[in-house]
């Protein structure tokens, strides 16, 4: 019996480049959630797709010398494209929408017209800033240091006749939605939205463009194309049949139960999207969940930063299930996580090879050896259960509820933690019962041995059911190995101790998760991933902002090098005598002897921070610090002093 419907979506991806493992993160999470809901008995609709319009795609296509449609076709449908990647990752989406699909195009034109006809879209003049890579318009006040607040890249001036959506009209309603309901999660994202976007005043949104053509034409005003976010957000309803005749599931599945989205696009989903739906008079999605980023080397993984990790390489090496599992086991879904190859291998070795893999292989091997014909009838019960028996049974039969509570909050990491706690308990149970010792006297202990093995198999089965949404293929193999009937592994069975038939006959099979040789694989990955790595590695940008007043307290000055000498007995330090414009020489010690010869620096103008408290190094006083730039090249640390134009006089303040 169906336990109701569940409609879940991923963002639809820009096919401007091949997808990386950061993109796969959200889709794998959505897939695990969709599979979990199906397991629970829900009628699930899982939608994903591609967002194919906009200036960025037009530019990329022209650089490649193809039409925009040819360009996106290749990335979506072509070899190792979006669809291939989802197949590889075993993504079980029910529908895939492309915003270039005819039915979607026609539906967007209807939606735009409806918003226009009800007075929420009007014609005006757009004057402002535009970030090409993000395809976002910004007002002057939203820029950060004159750059795009999302990606930090330069923006361009834009002025043209355009249509506007009356977003301002919905400001209060949207604020109420965010502050007084649990529409947006995690809760921290609500403050971000309200403080950064709503409190400063929600301006009307520019929703059409005339400066490029690769978009959905506004049918009642040729020359205008629909703003890509209006086009993209609407996919969630057009894919169900809203405004078109291709599908007929709108009544059944809308409103969405949850939209999973990356944190940088929460703004579109939590402000613009509800306002559009309010204007259309349609119900709002029940929830938007803004997940964190998968970072690499401390920064968001992205093609433009050159730090992308190729999911094909990892899946081919370690298996799709291990990769899926790693992403959701290691990082809390709402926060950022730093991807490293070491962490991936360590997680596979610890959780999958050691804990789960060992439990399955030890249990099935012992069952095969001691009971080759299968466990005897009656092995499921024991008259006087021991403490470990009781503990294991209680842990396994109470697991489903704990897991469910975490899954319902999208806390995949915690749900998996619960499962692995039981797996670890089961491994301990093997040691507590020492089945190999019991087996020495089958006459006396055979019955007890069969019961111990039954308890282990049943615990493994329950864990297997709950791990299925994360590792579907491996759990199929696991069920075969422990002898559990494939069709019996239901949600209900996960809460019923003893659902495994007593006369079960496990078959030890291939090792589900072979242990990985960390050193060897890291070296191989280093080679395989080398082209994807940036040649130059820089320090991650500071996560915390420093307030302006604090920053202003630092006194940076231009200083001229009057003399520079190595410091005796130190391999690192150089001692500088500097003209700082005050008329009194300033002495600063700097640990840069590895990179500079003292004589090469005499006469140069450098930058120093001069209001640090004095320090003593090798018995010499240092009054300040010279500023240099550091980065890594091929793993080696490089340093360059900040040498500035000689025309800058000593003592000039830098601000
Ligand atoms: N096309 C829009 C979404 C429109 S939805 C109506 C878009 N596409 S995207 O391809 O740039 O990003 C798709 C999703 O991938 C976003 O949710 C984004 O946050 C996510 N990720 C891209 N890189 C990521 C990481 N490194 N880590 C986690 N998620 C990341 O935005």
- Helix percent reads 40-55%
Distinct small molecules? 5'-O-[(L-methionyl)-sulphamoyl]adenosine
Number of helical elements: 23
| Beta-strand residue percentage | 15-25%
Number-wise, the strands total 27
Extract low-pLDDT stretches: none
Going by helix content, strand content and strand pairing, the class is alpha+beta
Oligomer designation: single chain
Task: Give average pLDDT, whole number.
Answer: 92
Which CATH first-tier class of the domain at 339-495 would you pick? Mainly Alpha
Shape: flat
At the third CATH level, what is the topology name of the domain at 339-495? Isoleucyl-tRNA Synthetase, Domain 1
Query: Terminal Cα separation, in Å?
Result: 69 Å
The rounded Rg comes to 31 Å
Which sheet architecture does the biggest sheet show? 7 strands, antiparallel
* CATH homology group of the domain at 339-495: Isoleucyl-tRNA Synthetase, Domain 1
User: Which CATH architecture of the domain at 339-495?
Assistant: Orthogonal Bundle
How is this structure best described in words?
This protein has 23 helices and 27 strands. The protein is α+β, with helices and mostly antiparallel strands. Among the domains are: 157 residues, Isoleucyl-tRNA Synthetase, Domain 1 (Orthogonal Bundle), CATH 1.10.730.10; 97 residues, Nucleic acid-binding proteins (OB fold (Dihydrolipoamide Acetyltransferase, E2P), Beta Barrel), CATH 2.40.50.140. Strand 17 and strand 18 form a beta hairpin. Helix 6 crosses helix 11 and helix 13 crosses helix 14. The mean pLDDT is 92. 5'-O-[(L-methionyl)-sulphamoyl]adenosine (MSP) binds next to helix 1, helix 8 and strand 11.
């Amino acid at each position: 019996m169906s336990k109701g419907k569940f409609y879940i979506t991923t963002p639809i991806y820009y096919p401007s480049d091949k997808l990386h493992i950061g993109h796969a993160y959200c889709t794998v999470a959505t897939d695990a959630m969709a599979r979990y809901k199906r397991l629970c008995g829900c009628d699930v609709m899982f939608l994903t797709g591609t967002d194919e319009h906009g200036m960025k795609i037009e530019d990329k296509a022209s650089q490649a010398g193809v039409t925009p449609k040819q360009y996106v076709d290749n990335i979506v449908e072509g070899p190792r494209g979006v669809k291939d990647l989802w197949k590889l990752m075993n993504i079980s989406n029910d529908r895939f929408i492309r915003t270039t699909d005819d039915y979607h195009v026609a539906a967007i034109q209807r939606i735009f017209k409806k918003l226009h006809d009800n007075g929420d879209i009007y014609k005006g003049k757009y004057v402002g800033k535009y970030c090409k890579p993000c395809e976002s318009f910004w007002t002057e006040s939203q820029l950060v240091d004159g750059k795009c607040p999302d990606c930090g890249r330069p923006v361009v001036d834009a002025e043209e006749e355009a249509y506007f959506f009356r977003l301002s009209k919905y400001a209060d309603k949207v604020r109420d939605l965010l502050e007084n309901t649990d529409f947006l999660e995690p809760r921290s994202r609500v403050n971000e939205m309200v403080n950064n976007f709503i409190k400063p005043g929600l301006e009307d949104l520019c929703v059409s463009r005339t400066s490029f053509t690769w978009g959905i034409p506004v049918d009642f005003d040729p020359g205008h194309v629909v703003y890509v976010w209006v086009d993209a957000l609407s996919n969630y309803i057009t894919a169900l049949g809203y405004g078109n005749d291709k599908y007929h599931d709108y009544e059944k599945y809308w409103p969405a139960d949850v939209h999973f989205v990356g944190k940088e696009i929460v703004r579109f989903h939590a402000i613009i999207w509800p306002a559009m739906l309010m204007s259309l008079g349609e119900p709002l999605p029940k929830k938007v969940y803004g997940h964190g980023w998968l970072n690499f080397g401390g920064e968001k993984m992205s093609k433009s930063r050159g730090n992308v990790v190729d999911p094909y390489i990892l899946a081919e090496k370690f298996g799709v299930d291990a990769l899926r599992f790693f992403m959701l086991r290691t990082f809390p879904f709402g926060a950022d996580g730093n991807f490293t190859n070491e962490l991936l291998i360590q997680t596979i070795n610890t959780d999958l090879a050691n804990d789960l893999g060992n439990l399955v292989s030890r249990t099935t091997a012992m069952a095969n050896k001691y009971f080759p014909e299968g466990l005897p009838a009656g092995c499921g019960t024991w008259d006087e259960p021991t403490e470990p028996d009781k503990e294991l049974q209680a842990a396994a039969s109470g697991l489903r509820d704990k897991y469910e509570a975490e899954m319902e909050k999208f806390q995949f990491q915690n749900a998996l933690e619960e499962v692995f706690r039981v797996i670890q308990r089961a491994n301990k149970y093997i040691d507590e019962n020492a089945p190999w010792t019991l087996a020495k006297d089958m006459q006396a202990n055979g019955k007890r041995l069969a019961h111990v093995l039954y308890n282990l198999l049943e615990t493994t089965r329950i864990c297997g059911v709950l791990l299925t949404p994360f590792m579907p293929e491996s759990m199929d193999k696991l069920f075969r190995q422990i002898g559990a009937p494939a069709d019996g592994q239901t949600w209900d069975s996960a809460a019923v101790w003893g659902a495994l038939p007593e006369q079960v006959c496990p078959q030890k099979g291939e090792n589900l998760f072979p242990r990985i040789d960390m050193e060897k694989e890291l070296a191989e990955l280093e080679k395989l991933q080398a082209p994807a790595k940036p040649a130059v590695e820089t320090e991650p940008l500071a996560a915390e902002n420093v307030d302006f007043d604090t920053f202003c307290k630092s006194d940076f000055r231009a200083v001229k090098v009057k003399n520079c000498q190595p410091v005796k007995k130190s391999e690192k330090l150089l001692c500088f005598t500097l003209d700082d414009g005050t008329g009194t020489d300033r002495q600063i010690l700097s640990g840069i002897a590895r990179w500079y010869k003292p004589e090469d620096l005499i006469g140069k103008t450098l930058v120093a921070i001069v209001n640090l408290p004095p320090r003593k190094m090798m018995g010499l006083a240092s009054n300040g610090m010279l500023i240099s730039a550091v980065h890594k090249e091929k793993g080696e640390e490089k340093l360059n002093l900040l040498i500035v134009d000689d025309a800058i006089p000593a003592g000039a303040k830098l601000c």
